[in-house]
Design a protein that fits this description.
Blueprint: H1 16-31, H2 46-56, E1 68-73, H3 76-95, H4 101-107, H5 118-121, E2 124-131, E3 133-135, E4 141-143, H6 147-164, E5 168-169, H7 178-184, E6 190-199, H8 215-218
Antiparallel strand pairs: 1-2, 2-6, 3-4, 5-6
């Protein structure tokens, strides 16, 4: 096994005030992000989608296998096929008894249903596949590690990149999603993970009136105990 190669990494350390300013600015930006289900048909340059995928691919991954594939679709005919297949599965979910009543009740505040017109309207559909295993240069099958965790992190960066550009998206996960592999001609070692419609929001779009959990509900702190007074000196 060859020895690993390392390079110097010397990121600049910012002053605390600047770090806090950057952190607050990024939080304020991301806190405005919303999942959108109404898209404008306006075109989005391919270069923006390319940069969003490149940003996603900076994500850490198990053993640096980078077990993801981003398939970007703008062909109207392919988008129509995806919509038709997705709606067929979604109709079974909402009306065919696949979804328990509790699940449907949880979805009710979002105003969702089996119809997914945005899959044909959004200028881009980006389908993310998890690579279950890869192949060495010799062609031998090569195992990937922490695939779902790695792909999930990459998807989070993709969402952040899209929002930073002023575009919107929505994680869409029809179940099952095998039709995406068939329509997009993906190999058997790739499994659909999530579908992202990407574009500009429709004019006068509305989103559910939801509130995110407060920080106190999602964060737990186990900190070093603070000293209550000066240290006692030894005699």
């Amino acid at each position: 096994m060859p020895e690993p190669a390392f390079l110097p990494y010397r990121p600049g350390r910012l002053p605390k005030a600047q770090m806090l300013r950057h952190a607050r600015e990024f939080f304020d930006l991301m806190n405005q992000r919303r999942s959108v289900r109404q898209f404008a048909p306006d075109p989005v340059p391919r270069e923006l989608i390319k940069l969003a995928i490149a940003t996603a691919s900076t994500a850490p991954s198990g053993a640096h296998r980078q077990p993801w594939r981003f398939v970007a679709v703008s062909d109207p005919a392919v988008k129509r096929r995806i919509r038709q297949a997705a709606e067929a599965e979604e109709r079974k979910f909402y009306q065919g008894g696949r979804a328990p009543a509790e699940w449907l009740a949880a979805l009710a505040p979002l105003g969702t249903g089996w119809r997914k017109p945005y899959l044909a309207i959004a200028p881009w559909l980006v389908v993310v596949f998890e690579e279950l295993h890869g192949f060495a240069p010799s062609g031998q099958r090569r195992r990937n590690y922490y695939v779902k965790e790695s792909v999930g992190i990459a998807c989070g960066l993709f969402i952040a990149a899209v929002h930073q550009m002023g575009l919107v998206t929505l994680p869409h996960t029809p179940s099952p999603m095998r039709f995406l592999s068939e329509i997009l001609g993906r190999p058997s070692n790739e499994k659909p993970f999530v579908l992202f419609p990407v574009g500009f929001p429709a004019r006068n779009v509305q989103v559910p009136n939801l509130q995110r959990k407060a920080l106190e509900e999602v964060a737990v702190w186990l900190e070093r105990p603070r000293r209550s007074g000066p240290r006692n000196s030894h005699p």
